[in-house]
Amino acid sequence: MGAGASARASVSPILTITASATTTEIPGGKVSDIFVYPIKSCRGISVSSAPFTPAGFRWDREWMVVNSRGKAISQRNEPKLALVHVDLPNEAFAEDWQAPEDSFMELKAPGMQPLKVCLGKQPELKNGFSVWEWTGSAWDEGSEASQWFSAFLGKPSQLVRFNTASEVRQVDPDYVKGHHPTLFTDGYPFLLSSQIH
């Protein structure tokens, strides 16, 4: 957490980091912007505060698009993913919010009809998905999401959600000691960048 960020503890194991225009001057910096990327490699959401869990900001890289072999697709090999706009309900960033069955993540992209992905249901669990060194099970978001991404990318694709119920993906122990979980990130739950004013 950057110096100057305000944080509030909650009853659950979630802490919230807030970007603030007014900060106490502490040497080292301040958090000026927070972005959450619900779908790996798709456009991020700018938020003023975000709850985080032991695996990073809530909702961050919880989904990924995979190819016909179940391997992660990223902007490195599909730059068009940067055009996919992702929206979550505003209340999804409240610390204690639980997704009701009528809540959705909405996706938009040029030339495509909007796609709604239900946040409050548990899709079918399937095996054999991978991102970097990790392979495991994930929740398949279904044929409508698969058809949407396949049409947009022009090749067979599927949207999957990290199986937090039974899967654990650890960060690389060569760089971080102890057990620290992450989801579909490239390797670590947080990416910090600096900005000179």
UniProtKB/TrEMBL annotation:
InterPro entries: MOCOS_middle (IPR005303)
Residues of the Molybdenum cofactor sulfurase middle domain: 29-156
Protein name according to UniProt: Molybdenum cofactor sulfurase middle domain-containing protein
SUPFAM superfamilies, per the entry: MOSC N-terminal domain-like
